[in-house]
Amino acid sequence: MAAALVLQQSRSWFSAARLPPLARISLSAAFVPAFFAASKPFTWAIPSLPSLLELFPPWLLAVPKKKTSHSRKAMRSANKGLKDKQNLVHCPACGSPKLAHNLCPTCYRELNVEWKRNRSPEL
């Protein structure tokens, strides 16, 4: 029977040709080792809760006990406001205020308008 099965599977080129010889033979009760056949029937065991909790890290199960009130949220975010800029300087060319180590927006706008006016038309 096993030889006929191998012969039949060897005719199909797409799956049986790629399988090793032992994989072509169907497993029956004769090929199953004795310790598998003589073992007790399988029963499902429900794991206990402490063993399930060991699978998760403690920070994953952290949940707040009560809702955070609007007042507490406001107090926590009170120091997240906007801060005043300390690095403002006057532009040496036009005198308008600008951020230090940045281009002056007024001078840049004037230069950009001048460049666009002098640009030759591209044909």
From TrEMBL:
GO terms for cellular component: mitochondrial large ribosomal subunit. It comes from the Eukaryota. One of its GO terms (molecular function) is structural constituent of ribosome. Keywords: Mitochondrion, Ribonucleoprotein, Ribosomal protein, Transit peptide. InterPro entries: Mitoribosomal_protein_bL32, Ribosomal_bL32, Ribosomal_zn-bd. It is found in: Mitochondrion. GO terms for biological process: translation. Belongs to the bacterial ribosomal protein bL32 family. This is Large ribosomal subunit protein bL32m. It comes from Lentinus tigrinus ALCF2SS1-6. The lineage of its organism: Eukaryota, Fungi, Dikarya, Basidiomycota, Agaricomycotina.
